[in-house]
Structures
1.
Amino acid sequence: MSIFETLESEVRSYSRGWPVVFDRAQGSWLYAEDGKAYLDFFAGAGALNYGHNNPALKQALLDYISRDGVTHALDMFTVAKRDFLETLDEVILKPRSLDYKVIFPGPGGANAVEAALKLARKVTGKESVINFTNAFHGMTLGALSVTGNSMKRGGAGIPLVHATPMPYDQYFDGAMPDFLYFERLLEDSGSGLNDPAAVIVESVQGEGGINAARLEWLRGLSELCQRHGILLILDDVQMGCGRTGPFFSFEDAGIKPDIVCLSKSIGGYGLPMALTLIRPDLDVWEPGEHNGTFRGISPAFVTATEALRTYWRDDELEKSVRAKGERVGAALTEIAESHSGVTAKGRGLARGLEFGSGELAGRVCAAAFERGLLMETSGPDGEVAKLLPPLTTSDNEFDQGLQIIRESVEAVLAG
């Protein structure tokens, strides 16, 4: 590993917790170059919902490459982009009565968020955006301005402005009625709150600590935005594409955000891809006003299209994720109840165990790695051991992984 330590920047992080050189991957497994297998309950931070090297997606990609399909196309028209847009409309948008236009903002989730913030300000003529405590929306300057984590914000090196945090669901442990503080500030001309262009929110905060907003809270937020003429941006970068069960994490709440950000698993295969979905009346861009070199990565269009066709023409995957999520949640609750100071959290297959400190959660993840399981920490102090397994993980693999977690928690807390 000397070349990594010698040449690669100190900013690297995941490799510090998993100090092996990986060589192959299949399904829910990663294999080190020495052949040791690791069960992956991280799934590329949610970019591999359909597993590593999914056979159906791989074949579609190989077929496309072998016929010399266009790889890079900026925002030109291509067969691959047409197939993707037609499939997205047919399989995802129309069945859900969602009327969105599609922006291809660049290759990553931060690109989707930056486009959303930029467009909201252009449409409304207002600068301020409301975000929430413990939010995470990306590492570029605009996305960092609406992110809560102080360490990540500190890396910006300049003041992060034009954003105001509000308490996320249960931030005050039920001591204050939902949105009392927010709405009071909006309606009070003496509050000093700048009139916001938009509110940006995650229905489940992944990096923030697997904080799952109640469905009634999401509905209340949507209604508040409608009452006050504020655009609602739903960041579904990590929790979309089935992570909580339905394709969009907000579906169970019955809301229709004005703008939706997607990335990570929208490409299906782990290839870079991002979308910003917007109400048609918000499409006020001038040609070229928001652009970028890597908006038309055709191999990602191909695997994204195949993923939608394979997994979203019916509700089988959604039902499976809900059932597996309940099973994993019950197992984590059992573990938590067996140990003082541990709490099970999450929704669908975004789950976590919250410990009393980041030191404990880190030790649990390290113990799991020693036993052949990859999981990471999240939360403002890294106090949550986070599970984001591929949605295609089998029942037997969940049995293996949950047993490793039990053993890891026991080893750390009994030590």
Note: The mean pLDDT is 96.
2.
Amino acid sequence: MHLPFPRGPVTTMLAERLTRPPHEFRPPPLSGDAALADEDEQLALFICYELHYQGFSEVNDRWEWEPSLLATRQVLERRFTYALTEAVARPAVPASTHIRRALSELVAAADEAPSLAAFLEKKADATQFREFIAHRSIYHLKEADPHTWGIPRLTGKAKAALVEIQADEYGGGSLDRMHSELFRATMRGLGLDDTYGAYVNRVPALTLAAANVISLFGLHRRHRGALLGHLAAFEMTSSLPNQKYARGLRRLGGDESACRFFEEHVQADAVHEQIAAHDMCGGFAEAHPELAGDILYGAACALFLDRLFSDHLLDAWARGTTSLLEEASPVGGP
């Protein structure tokens, strides 16, 4: 993956610094309120996080733990965390700590909004479906990796449940069943570039924020409860939408290979949501009742950012415009 094109002063600084050998530097001062939709800050945070995943071809791997870069990331994380706190209210924790019931109530409330899945199932044209896939590629080409950071930070029932979920995400050790590989097949079936990070220059800040929040929760032990809540919300809102995505893609002529990613999630996530809510989150809340609120907050963040993402796509398409950032190379296809 190549370094993305800069979108402001922070990413311009990173693009210039990271192509040199690792060295100490001072992050640029940031002014104004942090914003979830700030293109420069969300891309900068994405770049900092990506060094813990696949990295960049122009960047020395030693940058991953360079203290001055970590200091820059810390500033960005504080602003991101503040923006999330301002946008997402912490749900009340039930006195009985019935986490599964509280999670179900959060998901039910989120389902009341207009459905992106319904639009993709029945109304989207091929270009709109490709745009949706281009957005999703930012996460799905490394699907499961951000949540896997939680495994060594858990014990007991919660750890066993997370391992069970993640093992399925990685295809049980079979390359052609890994969910990231299935998504690559979907991209190829739609005439899209399935290279890791191919569309990072086309996706807006809200898409990056949805990916960044998982890395934020996953890379900090203190956020392990929020990480589990995020994954639970992800699994609990996956099965039915993926069924609609599969129908929509078949309506547009998608073949078996292209639709397999979505159809796999219809079955897998119907099981995962029970494991995630009951065994993983329930087990963690039993062991750490003081962190039960973090579980619900992580779920609320996942649902909120997914709603912002869905609204962005539906609003753009209602106006007859693209939901992606404009760039020389289009996301079209045959």
Note: The radius of gyration is 19 Å.
